Known about the structure:
Layout: H1 2-22, H2 27-45, H3 49-54, E1 65-70, E2 75-80, E3 83-91, E4 95-99, H4 140-148, E5 161-168, E6 171-177, E7 187-188, H5 193-206, H6 231-235, H7 252-259, H8 263-268, H9 284-295, H10 301-313, E8 322-323, E9 337-339, H11 341-352, E10 356-357, E11 360-361, H12 365-371, E12 387-388, E13 402-406, E14 410-415, E15 420-426, H13 435-443
Antiparallel strand pairs: 1-2, 2-3, 3-4, 5-6, 5-15, 7-9, 8-9, 10-11, 12-13, 13-14, 14-15
Helix pairs in contact: 2-7, 4-13, 5-9, 5-10
Amino acid sequence: MKKILKLLALVLxxxxxxxxxxxxxxxxxxxxxSAKSIASxxxxxxxxxxxxxxxxxxxxxxxxxxxTIDDAGKFATSAVYGLKERKAIYRxxxxxxxxxxxxxxxxxxxxxxxxxxxxxxxxxxxNNEPKDTVFSNIDYSKLKKAIDNAFDKSxxxxxxxxxxxxxxxxKLIAEKYDTGFTKDSKILGWSMTKSITSSAFGVLAKxxxxxxxxxxxxxxxxxxxxxxxxxxxxxxxxxxxxWEENYSTICDATKMLFLAEDMGKVQLDKPVQFxxxxxxxxxxxxxxxxxxxxxxxxxxxQEYLDFWYSAVIDKIGMxxxxxxxxxxxxxxxxSYAWATPRDWSKFGLxxxxxxxxxxEQILDESWVKYTATPTNTSEGKYGAQFWxxxxxxxxxxxxxxxxxxxxxxxxxxxxxxxxxIIVRMxxxxxxxxxFNGFLKGIIRSVKN
Length: 448
């Protein structure tokens, strides 16, 4: 009996040691991810804690967190086995911010001044219901089959699609939502937010207020070799700055999103690893640095907050969209934009129509072309904060397709040669969800 007890004690010690070496260092990140996810899903989209835990937080290690929601205080907390509790607060107009212990929640804050688009036009150019439009060259039975196939059958969790929206020739031709989701559901775009950030630079460039081919206006870089890095290099993820983006471990990206108070400064402080424009390296830190650069273009915080919405988001009627901030008041341009699937499709339509929105040229045509031009050394898969199919990642989709892409398979696909936008929102990406087959099915519903 004593031997058995000693053996059990040894096993327990080994388990504790294993937990200490493998999981304990991740607890801040686990509870941070969970608290942020719970708070955003609940306060922005009115989801229950139970639904968020079963869906958004159904991720290995993240599911270890115990979560609470305080509706009166408008915050959520999460901890793992009672350890490393983290808090995420909701502020009307700003969304949710994951905070550290030293954050002063009583401090007054500014909110963006929003303009609701009211023009009595049907979706997508207005917010009224779309008109029924039937195109003779679309096989609607094939289209329906392709979209239905993107969703799980009842009780299964394989494809995990939440929403699909398809626009063709500026008209809505199909949409479908999973149980519990509707056209009014706000869904996190994750890294699709990077494309929103890019569009803000596009507007500043059109206004002649920023020169992307000149060295980035970062005072902290002026006494070292980083002073040669341009905004163009940053937009193309080609700056040569050191960065690790690996969401399966503790890395620069996870520490930035779930620990940093000023996310833009994380990449700003990194050293040069390669000569600019010679080594493509995907970096969420770079996009948050771009957001910080944008912030520094304005004299006041209010002007910075307003610009994102007045320049693009509200201009095209994406009134459901909320871009969340970090603790320093900088938009998390890499990851934290929420919007309805229909509003995400509006953003794609702006680029499909070469920057023109219902007669108003919001972005120069040259900017859209720039966006969809392959980055040097990316092998045809990346442009200026947009992904490309120029390298044939999706063999059954046209090579001119470019797209916004986010964690767990968020996509706004822009296909100029077909005059089509395809939006898919969900919780699974390749290889769990067959994006090539999904795109192929929708594309082939259009008769030549």
